[in-house]
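2024-03-11 09:14:02 INFO worker-7 job=invfold-0412 stage=load source=structure_tokens
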């Protein structure tokens, strides 16, 4: 029996994780669940999964949750705040940590899990994009394991040799091919993009996800963050990571070998597949995902991404090439811009313009420690905010 902490259990990935766990009660028990604000949903999850600890964002939310849990006769300990997230990620009672908080808010708890040597299922791509080598080093130094949940990276993980170690040439690999659906605006006239609404931007054609990643998919910043994520996870240079648009989202990514072989992982677009894969690795367990019916799908299409339509993808490649804290600056500017777009403070096309401006005005520095990284994050956020209010 393995015990798991789910950071961000009320989110899209968190709920899918609980769905998979619920199918295998003989293998997994829940040690801790965490949510930021959705207290009633967290209380319902606690009733079903009986965690030892539940964590929320504020003392007021903690009081509310405690009231709900006591009404139900549950004795779950209730904690709040970032320190508590780090504690449940590092607790000796827990074996596996699902890092499924959205954005930079997930950085500290993901690092805490790495420092405690946990098996980390990484959905929170922003933490790796920001901290890069620092997280990779913390994982290696403390004997932790980092397994990708992002469907593309999980697909690549499945297509790599099982003893793969962070060097494409050593394993006869020529290139990693990340597939991208292209999001909701793949064919929409570019000159009309500035008038898209948050509702249109979050209506992803293939995946049901949280609002932030849905907007990132519409701008293709999500794929840009994934290029950076692939760089750190697999030790792949930017020049060997290609993005291919594949609107059906059936092939989740590919690995191209020097002998001309291309290995792909296919499946219905449902996060429960990568979650089940990483949870049970190297075993296989049922996830609840329906088998793939290729004859019913009929055709698969591919095209190259257009940087004029998707400037955020180019900005992410540029940040990766620039190195240092450039990816953290990109991520911070993107988080501020996406929130402002969702709040209807800026138009859709302002997202990429704002990020480009912040990348120009905040200079990248070497990333040597977390304090320095957080300072770069803070400066980039302030610069992004200034673009919105100016
Ligand atoms: P979501 O918005 O649905 O859920 C986010 C979760 O994080 C919630 O449980 C929320 O309570 C918690 N949270 C939000 N802000 C927080 C804060 N400040 N402090 C603590 N907790 C906070 O997001 P999601 O779609 O589940 O995505 C989660 C992560 O997984 C993201 O990094 C995303 O890029 C990645 N991811 C998601 C999918 C997907 O299909 N949804 C696929 C691949 C990767
Ligand atoms: Mg993905």
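2024-03-11 09:14:09 INFO worker-7 stage=emit residues=390
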């Amino acid at each position: 029996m393995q015990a798991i902490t789910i950071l961000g259990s009320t989110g899209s990935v968190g709920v899918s994780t609980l769905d998979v766990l619920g199918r295998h009660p003989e293998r997994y028990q829940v040690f801790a669940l965490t949510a930021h604000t959705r207290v009633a949903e967290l209380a319902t999850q606690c009733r079903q999964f009986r965690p030892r600890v539940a964590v929320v964002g504020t003392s007021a939310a903690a009081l509310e949750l405690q009231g709900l849990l006591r009404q139900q006769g549950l004795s779950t300990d209730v904690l709040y705040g970032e320190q508590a997230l780090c504690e449940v990620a590092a607790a000796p009672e827990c074996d596996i940590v699902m890092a499924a908080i959205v954005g930079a808010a997930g950085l500290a708890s993901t690092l805490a899990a790495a420092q405690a040597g946990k098996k980390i299922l990484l959905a929170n791509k922003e933490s790796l994009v920001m901290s890069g080598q620092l997280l990779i080093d913390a994982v290696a130094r403390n004997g932790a394991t980092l397994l990708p949940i992002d469907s593309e990276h999980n697909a690549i993980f499945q297509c790599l040799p099982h003893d793969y170690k962070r060097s494409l040439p050593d394993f006869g690999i020529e290139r990693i091919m990340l597939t991208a659906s292209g999001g909701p605006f793949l064919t929409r006239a570019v000159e009309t993009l500035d008038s898209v609404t948050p509702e249109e931007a979050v209506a992803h054609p293939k995946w049901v996800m949280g609002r932030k990643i849905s907007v990132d998919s519409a701008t293709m910043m999500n794929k840009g963050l994934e290029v950076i994520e692939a760089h750190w996870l697999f030790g792949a240079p930017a020049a060997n990571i290609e993005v291919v648009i594949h609107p059906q989202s059936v092939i989740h990514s590919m690995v191209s070998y020097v002998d001309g072989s291309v290995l792909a992982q296919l499946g219905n677009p449902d996060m429960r597949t990568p979650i089940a894969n990483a949870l049970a690795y190297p075993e296989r367990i049922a996830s609840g995902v329906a088998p793939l019916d290729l004859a019913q799908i009929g055709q698969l299409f591919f095209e190259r991404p257009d940087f004029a339509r998707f400037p955020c993808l180019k900005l992410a490649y540029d940040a990766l090439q620039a190195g240092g804290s450039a990816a953290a600056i990109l991520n911070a500017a993107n988080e501020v811009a996406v929130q402002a777009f969702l709040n209807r403070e800026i138009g859709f096309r302002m997202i990429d313009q704002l990020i480009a401006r912040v990348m120009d005005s905040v200079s990248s520095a070497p990333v040597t420690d977390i304090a320095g990284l957080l300072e770069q994050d803070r400066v980039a956020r302030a610069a992004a905010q200034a673009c919105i209010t100016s």
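2024-03-11 09:14:09 INFO worker-7 stage=report msg="The chain has three domains: 2-148, 155-267+302-310, 323-390."
2024-03-11 09:14:10 INFO worker-7 job finished
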